[in-house]
Amino acid sequence: DQNKFQAIISHCKEYGFIFQSSEIYDGLSAVYDYGQYGAELKKNVRDYWWKSMTQMHENIVGIDSAIFMHPTIWKASGHVDNFSDPMIDNKDSKKRYRVDHLIEGYADTLPEAEKTALIQQMEELLKGNDYPGLKKLIEDNKIKCAVSGTVNWTDVREFNLMFSTQMGSVAEDANEIYLRPETAQGIFVNFLNVQKTGRMKIPFGIAQVGKAFRNEIVARQFVFRMREFEQMEMQFFIRPGTEDEWYAYWKEERMKWHKSLGLDPARLQYHDHAKLAFYAKAAVDIEYEFPIGFKEVEGIHSRTDHDLKQHQQYSGKKMQYFDTEINQNYIPYVIETSIGLDRCCLMVLSEAYEEQDLGTPEKPDSRVVLKFPAKLAPIKLAVFPLTKKDGLPELAKELMADCKKSFYCYYEEKDSIGKRYRRQDAIGTPFCVTIDHQTKEDGTVTVRYRDSMEQERIPLASVKEMVMKKILE
Ligand code: ATP
């Protein structure tokens, strides 16, 4: 549903969640800035992931490695030689497409059976790196360029997705370095540092959140595919031979995490990879049904000892672990979980976004509400004095002062209470509290719940605890 997707994008802009980067200069393609509420939402998702991974797992620790890394790392990881996508250019429009996206886009317009057959053919060809075959598939199906409507294609070629820059003075010894295209390598190269200093025993994990950069060619899907984005990755180091059970464990554990975000389980699914890297034992994606269809949010990969072995070879440093339980030295195997923070925010926004018709034939009315789980909502509590006099603002500010030490609150005294509710609905604030004259008499306030729009009176003294409890749910 493209309309819903567009509505979410507009809403994100109108309410201070996400802006196009460099907007006053007409924007920078596939780069975005998070506004006041988007930054809070993103921080809450990041913190929730971080806590679930590190605080909730005694054998997982977090690190924060640099974006710039020694260039040989990207040789060892295979990114210099292999981090590329097969692309094709349309000769008339000069537009470049990722071959799989082009074919998938076309397949979406076909009846289900034909679509499946075409995708299967494509996956076979991709698996065999059969570029002439892919070109032929595009030509045989008369797949058109979306811009020029023509079918005039170049050959299929590979383009590396890494951004590069020069470190130090360019004139001297020009040293090309890359902006990391994933955070994982910072974990691999610190494997021994963390294992030794943290006295970590296998099985154990290292988690990290940070920026990654990819020169994506097709980048027209809002924060789903960006050129600068944030990843949340975790590498779990295990004894060789235990990879199947740990893979199964993390596959399930990560799905549970997604469900704990309050997502409808019917909108989540696994997608097994048809095409595996030569070293990989298994790989699966967790997909979410965005308004634009089921798409990958997270990957879980069983990577054997490939990455550490590569770094051992390229660095000449031993990447071994001595397992005291079995008295053996080995290079650990790795299960990796890798999720995009921005994609995750888009998923949470898509799930939360709702347009509701609340009107009657006599009195039309509607609202847009973001039904975030309380723990992810940018603002947890809005505090409204009913009027600007009679000591009500003072009481409201006392409540603010008490609550804002513990969670993000918002104070507002302008406009009718109804209007104030609607503004909070649009940014997803789960609770609004109104202080009125009765508060002065009996110490109660009206709390209004975002989703049900129901209101009830509760003691002023219990507001903070009520919100705290919901945030931890
Ligand atoms: P895709 O097939 O969508 O390009 P990928 O398989 O290349 O993704 P990975 O390399 O496995 O992705 O990266 C792990 C996660 O990082 C992805 O599941 C996704 O959530 C996120 N991610 C990857 N590329 C981007 C991007 N360009 N913009 C936003 N998030 C991204």
UniProtKB/TrEMBL annotation:
GO terms for biological process: diadenosine tetraphosphate biosynthetic process; glycyl-tRNA aminoacylation. One of its GO terms (cellular component) is microvesicle. It is found in: Cytoplasm. It is an enzyme of class 6 (ligase). Keywords: Aminoacyl-tRNA synthetase, ATP-binding, Cytoplasm, Ligase, Nucleotide-binding, Protein biosynthesis. The keyword Glycosyltransferase does not apply. ATP binds at residues 214-216, 224-229, 296-297, 340-343. It catalyses: tRNA(Gly) + glycine + ATP = glycyl-tRNA(Gly) + AMP + diphosphate. PROSITE patterns: AA_TRNA_LIGASE_II (PS50862). Pfam families: HGTP_anticodon, tRNA-synt_2b. Its main location: cytoplasm. Residues 132-361 form the Aminoacyl-transfer RNA synthetases class-II family profile domain. The keyword Cytoplasm applies. Its EC number is 6.1.1.14. Homodimer. Belongs to the class-II aminoacyl-tRNA synthetase family. Catalyzes the attachment of glycine to tRNA(Gly). PANTHER family: DNA POLYMERASE SUBUNIT GAMMA-2, MITOCHONDRIAL, GLYCYL-TRNA SYNTHETASE/DNA POLYMERASE SUBUNIT GAMMA-2. This is Glycine--tRNA ligase.
